[in-house]
Task: inverse folding
């Protein structure tokens, strides 16, 4: 296997790992949020149809965990993808950010959430946190390299 194809395989595995970790963080926060912030009386959140029909009952507090799930899921996924990926780790983070953003757009199309939430979610939860995940991974990589050099001295 050539260096280029090995790097490409590693980049694809990095993105896959980022998607898995990011999705797990997202789902974990959604599940925890549902336990900490109970749905409004009369809201059926067990089905998409029930959620659509009762989302008008939701208050600001009901949107905090979904936003955190989207933002922190993207952050975790981009961090993992960037940390694992070879030299082009910014591309892996951007790929994660765009994939999660597409999921956010799908939610906006399907769920009649308030406009303020849709705007905040689409503008703040995906691409900015993907960049932050990349930046954090680069800081960790630099620290590990520096520590490795110190140990060899």
Result:
């Amino acid at each position: 296997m050539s260096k280029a194809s090995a790097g490409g395989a590693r980049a694809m595995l990095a993105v896959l790992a980022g998607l898995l970790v990011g999705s797990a963080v997202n789902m974990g926060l959604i599940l925890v949020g549902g336990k900490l912030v109970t749905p409004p009386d009369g809201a059926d959140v067990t089905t998409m149809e029930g959620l659509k029909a009762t989302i008008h009952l939701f208050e600001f507090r009901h949107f905090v965990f979904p936003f955190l799930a989207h933002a922190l899921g993207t952050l975790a996924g981009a961090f993992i993808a960037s940390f694992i990926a070879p030299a082009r780790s910014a591309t892996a983070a951007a790929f994660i950010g765009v994939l999660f953003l597409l999921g956010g757009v799908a939610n906006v199309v399907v769920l009649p959430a308030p406009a303020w939430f849709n705007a905040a979610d689409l503008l703040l939860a995906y691409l900015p946190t993907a960049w932050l995940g990349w930046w954090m991974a680069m800081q960790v990589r630099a620290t590990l390299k520096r520590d490795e050099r110190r140990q060899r001295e």
